[in-house]
Automatic annotation (TrEMBL):
Cellular-component GO terms for this entry: plasma membrane; side of membrane
Protein name per the record: chitin deacetylase
InterPro entries found in the cross-reference section: Glyco_hydro/deAcase_b/a-brl (IPR011330), NODB_dom (IPR002509), Polysacc_deacetylase_ArnD (IPR050248)
Major location (coarse): membrane
Family note: Belongs to the polysaccharide deacetylase family.
Keyword Metal-binding among record annotations: yes
Compositionally biased region (Gly residues): 423-432
Domain (NodB homology) ranges: 182-378
Lineage: Eukaryota, Fungi, Dikarya, Basidiomycota, Agaricomycotina
EC number(s) per entry: 3.5.1.41
Keywords from the named record: Carbohydrate metabolism, Cell membrane, Cell wall, Cell wall biogenesis/degradation, Chitin degradation, Cobalt, Glycoprotein, GPI-anchor, Hydrolase, Lipoprotein, Membrane, Metal-binding, Polysaccharide degradation, Secreted, Signal
Catalytic activity field: [(1->4)-N-acetyl-beta-D-glucosaminyl](n) + n H2O = chitosan + n acetate
Low complexity: compositionally biased ranges: 408-422
Compartments in which it is found: Cell membrane; Secreted, Cell wall
Amino acid sequence: MKPAVLSSLATVAVVGAHNIGPLYPRQGSSGAPAGTSAGSAAAATPTSFSFSLASTNPTAIPLGNILSNAPSQPTHALPSTFAPGTTPTAVSGAPALPNAALLAPSAYPSLDVVVPTGSPEVQQWIQDVKNSGVVIPNIAPNAPGGCPNNTVAAADADKSRCWWTCTGCVADTDIVDCPDKLTWGLTYDDGPSLYTPDLLTFLAANNLKSTFFAVGSRVISFPTILQTEYMEGHQIAVHTWSHPSLTTLTNEQIIGELGWSKKVIKDVIGVTPTHFRPPFGDIDNRVRAIAKAMDLTPVIWTRISEQATFDTDDFDLHSGLTTASHVLQNWNYIEGNATSSNFPTGFILLEHDLFQQSVDIATGYILPDALAHQPPFKIEPVISCLNQPLNNAYLELNDNSTNPPPISATTVVTGSASATGSSGSGGSGGNGSNSAVSTVGFPGLGPALALTLTLLSGTTFLLL
């Protein structure tokens, strides 16, 4: 579909916010619920947000209708479906597509609850981690509540934790951006959902592919949607079973959360993902080591300071903690930073396909604007933005020549506690070099872009 042109600058006044709790409660680095910190969309005083879009979708839901209390929209059929036994064509050498109708929910943990660790499956995965040779750091689980409730961990005086949430620290294994300028590693978290077909239809119409970080509890609910994502050439990756903050769990619980998510994805599409995204970006060296022992490489998203990340905050549309206008202003800030001559790499942006509001804002506004951008963005899955073949996204199809499994090494290398700009060489077998970016922004920025960074820092907190 060809987007319509929107030529004028739009300025919208926000007059309040609703308080509907999201499926996955979110919290910023302050430990307060996202959206309640200073500068957030849920401020008591009405706030104006300005944004400009080069293009919008002519069938877009009006911005005024993208609200927390919006009526549920009709759901739509998938753009395509695939019969059991179909041979995948997007990847080579893959097994035939499993029969999703044979999935037995009773064979999996309860939905949206941290998995129990006493099952035979989890016990076997625990043993597999012990046998991997990867050393798991002796780091105690964090208390719930984020940085204020974990002051020692947040300070990370000896840099041994490398807790991304509170310090912006990244390890060499973390994928946080794409190596090539103007390349966008497109990602969507928390699905599949009832509205994912709308997103897939838009992506198919515009020949776009994405990385979908799938929650195991959603996969067991919507296996056919995951199969369509996979068969159409999107990258499928792990986002845990029940979406907890991983640093608050025991080693055994982390293993169970990752293991069950890997298992249900393989049961549905026939292959096992090699990449994962920690919910809330909540990762430290203990989580990294466990993931490494389970052949999973972390993918987070681009971050330019301790509080400024490439997060549109689209997730909070559903809860009323932000507004559509605020999300589009955030997108403008991100777009401006990503295209600045001072920004040396491509980027990874955090978005979601769990709720109709986040799908509406993506297909109606963000993606059409990005497609109209000049010079053009190269929009592709994370595995592709790393200049690797799609086969490398799956353990059984990876030939190990360009992307050896993470357990080929036995330690997790800790990066600096500064904010990232690390090349996309993160993960196994990346082919760039690290280029750190200061935690206080980019030196030498002009006044306009410096203002953008200030605004981004004031409006974007550590979210999903």
